[in-house]
Amino acid sequence: MKIAVIGQSLFGQEVYKELRKDGHTIVGVFTIPDKDGKADPLAIEAEKDAVAVFKFPRWRVKGQAIAEVVAQYEACGAELNVLPFCSQFIPMEVINRPRHGSIIYHPSLLPRHRGASAINWTLIHGDKKGGFTVFWADDGLDTGPILLQRECDVERDDTVNTIYKRFLFPEGVKGTVDAVRLIAEGKAPKITQPLEGATYECIQKKDNAKIDWNQSAEDLHNWIRGNDKVPGAWAEVDGQKVTFYGSTLVDNGSAANGQPLEIPGASRPGVVTKAGLVLFGNDGKTLLVKNLQFEDGKMISAAQYFSSGSSAAVELTDEENCFAEEMRAVWQSILTNVSHIEDSTDFFKSGAASMDVVRLVEEVKLRTGGCQLQNEDVYMNCTFQDFIQMCVRRLRGEDEEEELAVDYVEKNTNNMIIKMPHQLFINGEFVDAEGGKTYKTINPTDGTAICDVSLAQISDVDRAVAAAKEAFEEGEWGKMNPRERGRLIYKLADLMEEHQEELATIEAMDSGAVYTLALKTHVGMSIQTFRYFAGWCDKIHGSTIPINQARPNRNLTFTKKEPIGVCAIVIPWNYPLMMLAWKTAACLTAGNTVVLKPAQVTPLTALKFAELAARAGLPKGVVNILPGSGAVVGQRLSDHPDVRKLGFTGSTEIGKHIMRSCADSNVKKVSLELGGKSPLIIFGDCDMDKAVRMGMSSVFFNKGENCIAAGRLFVEESIHDQFVTKVVEEIKKMKIGDPLDRSTNHGPQNHKAHLDKLVEYCQTGIKEGATLICGGKQVQRPGFFFEPTVFTDVKDHMYIAIEESFGPVMILSKFKSGEVDEVLRRANATEYGLASGVFTQDISKALYVSEKLNAGTVFVNTYNKTDVASPFGGFKQSGFGKDLGQEALNEYLKTKAITIEY
C-alpha cells in the first residue's frame, strides 16, 4: 500500500522502517520541524531513504485546515495514513482523505485513559493491566473504532519508562505494523469503543504533578512512578521544589535507620538512608525513592541528600585534561545548537534527548577502554563540569559506592580477631530480617551461643529474589563481558585466600570442623573451586549443527548456552562453605544470580562469604544469603515463581519434597545431591596398611559428617579380623577435643539433635545383634562429642546396614573369598548410589568392580579423593545432576537452538 506516516520520535522511526520492510511504499513522512537545529529521528530516517519529508509547524489555524498544507499532503496520493505517535492536531480533511482512512497508535487499553498522558495515568491509577490500542481515527479524541489491542501486566514498580521500553515500544511497533497488514489483507475489524469504562484525563504537566501527601503509600508510589520521568512528581522540601524519581514499595521501611527529612504536608518525616529516601503514606506503610532533582536541574542519589554539596572538585592531570577536551568535542557534536561548550553548559537544557544520553555513555566507554557509565550517571551530572568530574572519579576508582556497612560480631580466638556478619545479605547490604527476628547459632565444642543471627521470613525471601531478578535482567551483571565476570570471581577467590584463616576459624566454631581440616578442605577446596570455575567464564559456548537444507535456500543452525536467571541454592551443615562454593561458583560462572539458604545451624561462613563477594565487586543483587528455616525459606524458594533453578544438597526425604514443590510452582530446573550409603569393598589382596588408613578416612573424615562416607565396609573374611584389629588400634591413637587445637583429630558433631540421633542409631545396631567393638556413645565432656565407633557382624537386613548414620560409625560385614559377584550384589542392594570404593592390587578385578558398582563416584585404592575438575553426583535416590567439573555448568545453563535460512 501507499502509506503516509504522520508523526515523530523513535517510535515513529521504527514503525516507518518496519512498514518499508513489509513491502509498503511510504509516499510521504509528515513530522515536526527541527528543534534546536536537530531533526526528528523519523525525519532523519526518511531522508536517508530519499522519501519526501514535510515539517509543517501546524496543520490548521483557528480550527480551519491550512489549504496549502492539505494540498501538499494530497499530492502524495496516500491510500492509508499511519499515525504512530503524533503531537499535532491533524484536520479531518487529511484523516478521511485516503481510501483506507487513518489509524492511530495509542498507549492504553481504550476506552480507558483517553488523552495525551495515557501511560502516566495507567500507573497513577494503579492499573494491573496496561497495553496499547490501534484504532481508526475519527473526529473525537481517541474515540474511533478499535482495530487491534494488546495487553501486558503492569509490574509493581513500573515507571513510564520501564513499561514503555519493555512492552509499549517494541510490541507497539509490531502491533501497528500488524494492523496495517490486516488492512492490506482486508481483514481489519472496526469495533465500536464501549461507553462503559471510558475515562479521559488531563495532560500531565509539571504544575499539576505536585504530590498530595494525604494518601496511602501505594497511592504515593503510583503518583511518583506515574510521573517518572516526565513531568516528574514534586514537592516542596527545604524551601525549594524537589522532584522524586525511582519509587519502589518497601515492606520494612518503618524500621529504616537514617537521618530524618521534614517534608511539609507529609504524615511524618522522611528518612534519608543509604538505600535512598524512605517516605510514609497516611496508612503508615512505606516507599523508597532513589533519586531527587533540584530546581536547577541537578539530580542526586536520594541517599546523598545531606551530603550532595560536600565533595570537592578534583584537579585533573594532563591526561585527564586531554580526555576532558575529547568529551567537550563530543558534547559539541551532540549539542549543535550551542556555539561553545562551557563548564556550566547543561546537557539537557541545551536540547539533549534520551538517545543522546545513550551516545554519550558509549562515547565514554569507547574513549576510556571500557569505563561503563549508566544513563542515570548522565542525568545526575548534567553540566559539563559535573560530568567530567564524575568520569574522572570513576576512572580513578574514587567514585565507588559507599563502604559496605557490616555490623560485626567480633571474637578473639585462635590467636586472631575474627569478624562475623550476622544479618541477612540482600541486594548488596546486610539487613535485619522482617520484624527483627533472630536465633542463636551454637558452638558445638561447648554448647554455648556464638551470636544472634537474623532469621529470614517469607518477605525477606521475596525481597532477595526480586533483587536477584533485577540484577540479572537490568543490572550490569547480565550485561557483563564473560571475562570481566571471570575477573571478579578470581578476585573473590583471592579475597577468600586472604581470609582463609579467619574463614577456617569461623567454620571450626560454627560447625565443629577440625581447624586444620577446615583450612585444607572446607576453605582450601572452596578457594580452588572458585578459581577453577572463574577460568570457565569465557569458554562457555554452543556449537554449529548441520541440518537438512531447505533447497534452494540454505540453513545455518547453531546453539547458544545461556544463563537460567535467578537460582536458589540450599546447602547442608556438614561442609558449610565448601557446599556453598561447589554450587555457587558454577552458578555465577554461568552468569546467573543466586539466593542461597545456608543450613540454619551453620550460617556464619556463608555470611562472611557474602561480605567478601561484595568487597570483590560483585554487583548488588548477584549474591543474596538468607539464614533461616527450611520450612520457611527453603519452601518459599521452591515455590517462588521467579526462581528458575534450585540446587539442593541434603536428605533424600527433603529432596523429594523440593522436587514436588518445584514441579507444582513453575517446573523449575532442579539438581539434587541427596543421601548415601556408600559401599567400600576391601579384598584380601589389598595393601593392608593403606586399606586401613583409607578405610578409616572413608568413615571418620570430618567426624563422619561426609556425604560420601563409606556407610558400609565389606571386608574379605581372610583379612577381616586383622583389619578390625588394626582399625581399633588406630582409633585409640585419635585425639578427640577442641577443633582449634592443632593436634586434634576428631571434633564435635555439628549439633545436639544430630548427636542424639547417632546415640539412637548405635543403640538400634546393638538391639539388632550387631557386635559393638568400640565407641557407640557420647563423650563425657561439654559439647557434642561422639566416640568413633566400630560395628562388626552386621547382617544385610539390619537397620544400620541399610540406613546412613552420617557420623563416625564404621559398619563392617564379611564376604567369602572368591565371591566377587555376590559382594557386588550386596553392595548394590541399596536405594542410594552416591559413591563407592574398592581396594585390591589386582587391576583386572579393580576395573571389573568399578564397572559394576552402581554409584556416581568409584574410588580405587583411595577414598575421599574429590577434585574441582571432576564431576560429582549420585545415582538412584542419591539424586541427579553434577557439582564440580565442566558438567556442573550444565546445571546452571539452558541451551537455545537458532536456525537461520538464507
> Main β-sheet, in a few words?
7 strands, mixed
* Beta strand %: 15-25%
- Alpha-carbon Rg, integer: 34 Å
The low-confidence parts are: none
What's the pLDDT, averaged over the residues? Answer: 94
Tally of extended strands? Answer: 40
Describe the fold and architecture:
The chain is of the alpha/beta class. Helix content is 35%, strand content 22%. Strands 3-2-1-6-7-8-9 form a seven-stranded mixed sheet. Strands 10, 11, 12, 13, 14, 15 and 16 form a seven-stranded antiparallel sheet that branches. Helix 1 (9-21) packs parallel to helix 2, helix 17 (515-534) packs parallel to helix 18 (576-589) and helix 20 (630-639) packs parallel to helix 21 (652-666). The longest helix has 20 residues, at 515-534. The two termini are 26 Å apart. The mean pLDDT is 94.
Write the layout of secondary structure elements.
Elements: E1 2-6, H1 9-21, E2 25-31, H2 41-48, E3 53-55, E4 60-61, E5 64-65, H3 67-74, E6 80-83, H4 92-95, E7 102-106, H5 118-124, E8 129-136, E9 146-153, H6 160-168, H7 170-184, H8 217-226, E10 233-237, E11 240-250, E12 259-261, E13 270-273, E14 276-280, E15 286-293, E16 299-301, H9 318-334, H10 354-368, H11 375-380, H12 384-396, E17 409-413, E18 416-420, E19 424-426, E20 429-431, E21 438-442, E22 449-454, H13 458-473, H14 476-479, H15 482-498, H16 500-511, H17 515-534, E23 544-545, E24 555-563, E25 566-570, H18 576-589, E26 593-597, H19 604-615, E27 623-625, H20 630-639, E28 645-649, H21 652-666, E29 669-673, E30 678-682, H22 688-700, E31 710-716, H23 717-733, H24 752-767, E32 771-774, E33 789-792, H25 799-802, E34 809-815, H26 820-828, E35 832-833, E36 835-839, H27 843-852, E37 857-860, E38 875-876, E39 879-880, H28 885-890, E40 893-901
Helix pairs in contact: 1-2, 1-7, 5-8, 6-7, 9-10, 13-20, 15-17, 15-19, 16-17, 17-18, 20-21, 22-23
